[in-house]
Each structure stands twice: as structure tokens, then as C-alpha cells.
Design goal:
This protein is of the alpha+beta class. It has four helices and six strands.
């Protein structure tokens, strides 16, 4: 298990290509889900410096705040509500270039300007969501989607 993170500069894709193997090493041999979600959140926040990176876990028909890095966040989100609830309902990654333009956006932080939400799907069921917020408009694109979905695929979910 690696416990050092090597931050690199370069293009977004170069940063992801350097980060993904490091995240694999962080997860290797660690069976605890919460520890792994925490390390993924920390690694992404450290590498990219986004406002907020974290997980919401599906529990009893709502999303409950899980491990994260950043300012305090909404604790519970209902099915279909906000960007996270919509990504859960649609079971697909959502990229929101401007959160103010998203109908029903839940403003956990007024500093958030754009967002990407990636569902963790196992056995055709959404188990959790990776939520990432940025202070910049149009921060996220298909490169983020590709690599964040790859990172999510590394999580062993029992």
C-alpha cells in the first residue's frame, strides 16, 4: 500500500494518468470501504485542488454523506433532488458546467460553480456517488468523466 501521493503538474489527462496508479496502490490490500473512499477523496482533492470531493452513500432510500474533503456539506439528499439525486435517479454521470443553471440544484456551498457526479454502480444498483465541486465554471469535461469513472471502478463494494 502506498501512503505518499506525488502531485504532478501538466495537462488534466497527464495528471489523471499519474494519479490513477497511485490510487490503485492506495486501495491495494485495504478491505475497508470507508478508508478507501476517504483516500480517494483525499487524493483527488490534493491533486486537483477542487472545492469539494467526496462520497454520498445510498442508505434507506436517501443519500447520506460519506468520506469527503472540503467544507462542510449537506448531510442527506433525497432521491432525484439536486445534481446528486438526479445522478442517482438516472444512474449516470452528470457534468454540470454551471450549477446555477441546474434545476433544483442544492447549494451546499455558495462557492460551488460547477460539478460532476459519478455513480458507483454494482449489480445494476447505485450504491454511492462521487461528487466533485469546483469554484470555476465549466471545470469538468469528458476527460474528468473518463478518469473518475475508471477510479470508481477500482472500488470493491461488498
Amino acid at each position: 500500500m502506498a501512503e505518499d501521493l506525488h502531485i504532478i503538474s501538466g495537462t488534466k489527462e497527464e495528471q489523471y494518468k499519474a494519479l490513477v496508479p497511485q490510487i490503485k496502490a492506495l486501495l491495494e490490500g485495504e478491505p475497508d470501504l470507508i478508508a478507501n473512499l476517504a483516500n480517494i477523496s483525499g487524493a483527488l482533492k490534493e491533486q486537483f485542488g477542487w472545492l469539494w470531493v467526496g462520497f454520498y452513500i445510498v442508505k434507506n432510500e436517501e443519500l447520506v454523506l460519506g468520506p469527503f474533503q472540503g467544507p462542510v456539506a449537506c448531510t442527506r439528499i433525497r432521491y432525484g433532488k439536486g445534481v446528486c439525486g438526479a445522478a442517482w435517479k438516472e444512474a449516470t454521470t452528470l457534468i454540470v458546467p454551471d450549477v446555477e443553471q441546474f434545476p433544483g440544484h442544492i447549494a451546499c456551498s455558495s462557492l460551488s460553480k460547477s460539478e460532476i457526479v459519478v455513480p458507483v454502480i454494482r449489480g445494476n444498483i447505485v450504491k454511492a456517488l462521487l461528487d466533485v465541486d469546483s469554484t470555476s465554471l465549466e471545470e469538468f469535461d469528458t476527460t474528468d468523466q473518463q478518469y473518475l469513472e475508471e477510479i470508481i471502478s477500482l472500488i470493491e463494494w461488498n
